[in-house]
Amino acid sequence: MALSLTAVPDLARRRAARALDETGLLCVTFLEGLRRTWDVRQWWGEFIEQCWFLARVTSIPVMLIAIPLGATISLQVGDIARQLGAASATGALLIAAMVQQVAPLAAALLVSGVGGSAITSDMGARNIRDELAAMEVMGINPIHRLVTPRLWAASTVAVLLASVVIIAGTLGGYYFNVIQQGVSPGAFFDGATTLLQFSDLVITLVKAWVFGFIAAAVACYMGMNCDYGPVGVGRAVNRAVVVTSIVVFASNYILTTLYQVLFPPRF
User: Fold this and answer.
1) Cα–Cα distance for residue pair 109/117, rounded to 1 Å
2) pLDDT (average), residues 14-19
3) How far is 227 from 147, CA to CA, in rounded Å?
4) Is the pLDDT of residue 122 over 70?
5) Which own/partner contact pairs does 188-192 have at CB distance under 8 Å and 24+ positions apart?
6) Residue 168 has what pLDDT?
7) Average pLDDT value for residue range 206-218
8) How many CB atoms lie within 10 A of CB 190?
9) Domain locations in the chain?
10) What integer is the mean pLDDT of 241-254?
11) DSSP per residue over 2-61, as a string?
12) What was the pLDDT predicted at 217?
């Protein structure tokens, strides 16, 4: 019993040290990927290719998620607002929720779950085939050549997807609130101006931009440091999605708190 009780703190200490080491290596990979951003000619072609790939695989799923999500929020909020005699406020609450919280998180999770999985598997396949080591032998930094364009592609596509989420979610809420529940279109859109500021849209796009960087950095790091074999690549993909989700939600809390302190909500 004494040995088992002694082993538990040691195991926890080793796991904590390993987690800190991986966090530091992840930050190093991210910063190293940004360091040669100015050399656009080296990664412009790969950037365009990755942007097209991420947009192609995420645009349809994000709309299929945003439309029923906006409709669900509209139905739930509309029923409560109608009981309170404020059915016209449903549009304001729906659009405010889509702009402030739903859009950047949905975009980040789609980029991570769909695009990030493909990035991790691609980088993992390059790792187990020793392509990354071969690039280093040839004097090519694999982070500058492969990670940098994926960082900027994921952040760019995440910003575009956030806009798509806002539009698709608003259309879904408009259908159920205006057509199904009988609220006038003018009241649906006019109420949004009472809760939203221009800074709300700016912080939403900034969040999506930051979350795109996080998703790509985690995906690239997990793929470049996976275990050899198909099982190692599969585990790296799973870890990348889980870690990205945790970091994105934690970052969202920090950014939202800072935004509310700097720009208090207006009523």
Assistant:
1) 11
2) 78
3) 19
4) yes
5) 188/88, 188/90, 188/91, 189/91, 189/95, 190/88, 190/91, 191/88, 191/89, 191/90, 191/91, 191/92, 191/93, 192/91, 192/92, 192/95, 192/96
6) 87
7) 93
8) 13
9) 2-262
10) 91
11) HHHHHHHHHHHHHHHHHHHHHHHHHHHHHHHHHHTTT-HHHHHHHHHHHHHHHHHHHHHH
12) 93
CA distance 59 to 43: 23
pLDDT of residue 2: 46
Give the integer Cα–Cα distance in Å for 99 and 167.
9
Please name the residue ranges forming H helices in 98-229: 103-110, 117-128, 131-137, 142, 148-174, 185-190, 192-195, 198-224
**In residues, how long is the chain?**
267
Contact 219, 244 (CB under 8 A): yes
- Tokens standing for 89? 């406020």
Tell me which range, 8-12, 71-75, 179-183, is most confidently predicted by mean pLDDT. 71-75
- Average pLDDT score over residue span 196-218: 89
Instruction: Please report the sign of the dihedral spanned by the C-alpha atoms of residue 131, residue 133, residue 135, residue 141.
Output: positive
Task: Report yes or no: 147 and 34 within 8 Å, Cβ to Cβ.
Answer: no
Q: Tell me the C-alpha distance between 167 and 185, whole Å.
A: 15
2: tokens are: 């004494």
Closest CA to 126 of 46, 22, 56, 54: 46
Query: What are the two backbone dihedrals, phi and then psi, of residue 228, each rounded to the nearest 5 degrees?
Result: -75, 145
pLDDT digits (tens, 9 = 90+) for 48-59: 999 999 988 888
Rounded CA-CA distance 124/222 in Å is 8
pTM: 0.85
| The two structure tokens encoding residue 161 | 């997807």
Half-sphere exposure of 61 (CA within 13 A, CB side): 15
